[in-house]
Amino acid sequence: MTRFGILKHRSKQQENFLWTLAKFKENYPQDLPSEETTKALKSAQKLQGCGNFLLFKNFYTIDQTKLAKFHVCGQHLLCPFCAGIRASKSIQKYSERIDEVLKKNRKLKVALLTLTVKNGSDLGERANHLLTSFRTLIKR
Could you tell me the keywords of this UniProt record (predicted)? Predict the structure, then answer.
């Protein structure tokens, strides 16, 4: 539960940043509201309600408390709370497979890595760039 509190706090900080970004742009009367301002306002409004409703169920027979229902904004690229929920779902999805591999080889360490590159006109070149970069990372 502490983790959710930290994520909610970071989400609130992101929301405040978006509100100030939108208000900063609106302070210039000669400027019409830009697309950036509109997007910032919409995102801030979505973030405002994110993580406000969390329903935990206490399973006293197995001494566990689990998150049963929650309200999120769904902006996992912008919202730390949604990113945390998404990451935990991803970990749960692969945990059985990871446990199986770790049983066979105890020396391995688990890491979740996401590689991103800008879009380009040549998909093959982008894929080769990712593979080359990954190999360089492994060699270090």
Answer: DNA replication
* Residue 40 CB-density burial (10 A; 0-12 exposed, 13-18 middle, 19+ buried): buried
SS (H, E, C) 12-47: HHHHHHHHHHHHHHHCCCCCCCCHHHHHHHHHHHHH
Report the distance separating Cα 71 and Cα 97, nearest Å. Answer: 29
Measured CA to CA in angstroms, residue 81 lies from 8, 20, 24, 71 at distances of 6, 20, 25, 10
Q: Model pTM greater than 0.70?
A: no
pLDDT digits (tens, 9 = 90+) for 18-35: 778 777 655 566 666 677
Whether residue 35 lies inside any domain: the answer is yes
